[in-house]
Amino acid sequence: MNTKVEEEKSADIKLIIIGDAAVGKSKFIARFLEDEYNSFRSSTKALDLYQKEMDVDGEKVTVDIYDTAGQEKYESLHASYYFQAHACIMLFDVTRKATYTNLKKWHGEVKKYCENIPIVLVANKVDMNASITRKNFKFAENNNIPLYFTSCADGTNVVSVFREAVCLAVGHKRFGSKSIVDEALEILEDQLFIKEKDSIDEKGNKDTKN
Ligand SMILES: Nc1nc2c(ncn2[C@@H]2O[C@H](COP(=O)(O)OP(=O)(O)OP(=O)(O)O)[C@@H](O)[C@H]2O)c(=O)[nH]1
Ligand SMILES: [Mg+2]
């Protein structure tokens, strides 16, 4: 199912799409949901909500996709967009440097409203400048955020970004801010603790050989 949501339905995952006005957020969603693109420009008014069912590791996951307006006049509404989000796709436009510089502001908002959610960074419109993919974008590296080069015009990497974001969102929902490594270490620690406790219980005192 991939519909523009007219009435509220419960979803497993809330995915938010953020970035400056005209970076291509709405076209990005349209390319993913309908595999279509037209260059007609229409600014999002406040918020559009879509829903899509996806397959993650053989399980059906219902994803709400929040398409937010990039225009500054809607900034005061952003707190509600971020509320209980599980992951975020953050776009900039490779043809406009200001949209890259402003990532700091968007990143600050994510940290403020939902500190630990996974983020996927998108350098969009690479069809207009293919050589940009050789450039090293420090923002991604410095903040440890995965970076994809995409084009809504020809579809490059759009599906990959959604897949990655939803997989990260599912992981985040399961394990919160903990990484899978943290989770595995905790299980290991618990098991070692149980083993140690067992050896005390069996002999009445602690087995020092272990
Ligand atoms: N060449 C090219 N143009 C793109 C691409 N993605 C979006 N555009 C164009 O960029 C303009 C803005 O796209 P939108 O998707 O409306 O941008 P937005 O981020 O949703 O903008 P707001 O709703 O105002 O926040 C449109 O004219 C699109 O056709 C792309 O990958 N390549
Ligand atoms: Mg839009």
List the helices and strands and how they pair.
Layout: E1 2-4, E2 13-18, H1 25-34, E3 47-56, E4 59-68, H2 78-82, E5 87-93, H3 97-101, H4 103-113, E6 119-124, H5 138-142, E7 147-149, H6 158-175, H7 180-203
Parallel strand pairs: 2-4, 2-5, 5-6, 6-7
Antiparallel strand pairs: 1-3, 3-4
Bound molecules: guanosine-5'-triphosphate (GTP) and magnesium ion.
Report on this structure.
The chain has 210 residues and is of the alpha/beta class. It has two domains: 3-177, Rossmann fold (3-Layer(aba) Sandwich); 179-210. It has seven helices and seven strands. A seven-stranded mixed sheet has the order 1-3-4-2-5-6-7, with helices on both faces. It is globular. The chain starts with a strand and ends in a 7-residue tail after the last helix. The structure holds guanosine-5'-triphosphate and magnesium ion (MG). Residues 21-27, 39, 41-44, 69-71, 124-125, 127-128, 151-153 line the site of guanosine-5'-triphosphate. Residues 25-26, 44, 67 line the site of magnesium ion.
- How many domains, in number, for the residues? 2
CATH topology of the largest domain: Rossmann fold
The CATH architecture classification of the largest domain is 3-Layer(aba) Sandwich
Average predicted confidence as pLDDT: 87
Report how far apart the termini are: 55 Å
Task: Give the helix proportion (percent range).
Answer: 25-40%
Question: Which strand order spans the largest sheet, edge to edge or round the barrel?
Answer: 1-3-4-2-5-6-7
Taken as a percent bin, the fraction of beta residues is 15-25%
The sequence of SSEs as H and E is EEHEEHEHHEHEHH
Q: What structural class do the secondary elements suggest?
A: alpha/beta
Q: Which superfamily, in CATH terms, is the homologous superfamily of the largest domain?
A: P-loop containing nucleotide triphosphate hydrolases
Keywords: Nucleotide-binding
GO molecular function: GTP binding; GTPase activity
InterPro entries: P-loop_NTPase, Small_GTP-bd, Small_GTPase
Pfam families: Ras
